[in-house]
Design goal:
The structure holds two protein chains of two kinds.
Chain A: E1 2-4, E2 7-9, E3 13-16, H1 23-33, E4 37-44, H2 51-61, E5 65-68, H3 76-90, E6 94-97, H4 110-122, E7 126-131, H5 135-144, E8 148-151, H6 165-174, E9 179-183, H7 189-197, E10 202-205, H8 207-210, H9 215-235
Parallel strand pairs in A: 3-4, 3-10, 4-5, 6-7, 7-8, 8-9, 9-10
Antiparallel strand pairs in A: 1-2
Chain B: E1 2-5, E2 8-11, H1 17-23, E3 32-35, E4 38-40, E5 55-63
Parallel strand pairs in B: 1-5
Antiparallel strand pairs in B: 1-2, 3-4, 3-5
The chains are: A alpha/beta, B mainly beta.
Chain lengths: 260, 65
């Protein structure tokens, strides 16, 4: 089981609700992923519009826990207000906190992130901060009261997979009691498996499933990869080494002494 | 009076948030509203008076990653 604040879940695959070819495929993909937590967002509603109502009824049919995000917020003020709007709209104190520094890389503004996280935690929020793999930032977030930290693997939607494995490994070693989620940049099930093998508690992804040729089948593939990665971590992976070590016994090799 | 709704300047007759929603034909049920960066719980929509120059955000659930 994986713990997010005071709730426990069996699925370690958190999934986004955006970019699917159709609402039906979104629902089928989320079911195929076995996800129990889905991310959602908030946007302006045009006058007379019912876009929000239609989307919300699709999500409610899935019987999942929602994790609203502050995607697109570029300042502490915007992110804090958006989080409060999300709490009002979705009736949850959970917030995936994003404060974005740069449009092209969607690089988290880690300074603003720590400030916004502190404000929201004091206001009773349970914050899931989207951050870089920097240890000092993660430690500040934990000091502020975050019990979940979500470093990126690579920029959002880039599909590059884990680009700084050593830093992610270090985060895991230094924050053993924090729920760690690799969020963003995952492109293939093997990337998700790697995150779980490193001891990460879960992964959060969206584009890799939604933009696959067959999103429902890909969601199933990610489910298997996350389960395999976790099982491997629990089984205890061997350490890598620089030289070969024969797996077949050497003693009793035929013609042992005949070779010059 | 003149207010900004979702980033657009509008001339409105409504004096309260509730009346504004009616005036602008908002018919859905899932909204959250902020006025000048202050989030207003639904219970206060009827009583909250609007002032000229207010910035109003009307927000609904949407797909997200």
């Amino acid at each position: 089981m994986v713990r997010f604040y005071d709730q426990e879940f069996s699925s370690r695959l958190l999934i986004g609700t955006a970019l699917y070819p159709s609402p039906k495929i979104m629902q089928d993909a989320i079911r195929a992923a076995g996800s129990q937590i889905v991310t959602v967002s908030l946007r302006r509603e045009t006058a007379g519009g019912k876009t929000g109502d239609a989307f919300w009824s699709l999500i409610r049919e899935l019987d999942v826990t929602v994790l609203p995000n502050t995607a697109g917020c570029k300042s502490v003020r915007e992110a804090v207000t958006t989080a409060k709007l999300a709490r009002e709209l979705f009736g949850t104190s959970w917030i995936k906190l994003e404060v974005i520094a740069d449009n092209d890389t969607l690089q988290p503004d880690v300074v603003g992130l720590v400030e916004a996280a502190s404000i929201l935690i004091k206001d009773g929020f349970e914050v899931f901060p989207y951050c870089t793999e920097d240890l000092s930032v993660a430690m500040r977030l934990v000091d502020a009261g975050c019990k979940v930290v979500m470093p990126w693997a690579a920029p959002i939607g880039s599909a590059k997979g884990i680009t700084n494995r050593d830093a992610l490994r270090l985060l895991r070693e230094r924050l053993p009691d924090i729920t760690l989620v690799v969020d963003a940049g995952i492109g293939a099930p093997s990337h998700a498996a790697q995150a779980l093998e490193l001891g990460y508690d879960a992964v959060l992804l969206n584009t890799a499933v939604a933009k696959a040729a067959d999103p429902v089948a890909m969601a199933g593939a990610f489910k298997l990869a996350v389960e395999a990665g976790r099982a491997a971590h629990e089984a205890g992976l061997m350490d890598a080494r620089d030289f070969a070590s024969p797996s077949t016994p050497v003693v009793g090799t035929p013609f042992w002494h005949a070779v010059s | 009076m003149q207010v900004t709704v979702n980033g657009e300047q509008r001339k409105i007759a409504a004096r309260t948030v509730d009346a504004l929603l009616t005036e602008l034909d908002y018919e859905g049920t899932h909204f959250a509203i902020a006025v000048n960066f202050d989030v207003l719980p639904k219970s206060r929509w009827a009583e909250t008076m609007l002032n000229s120059g207010d910035e109003i955000e009307i927000i609904t659930p949407r797909q997200g990653g």
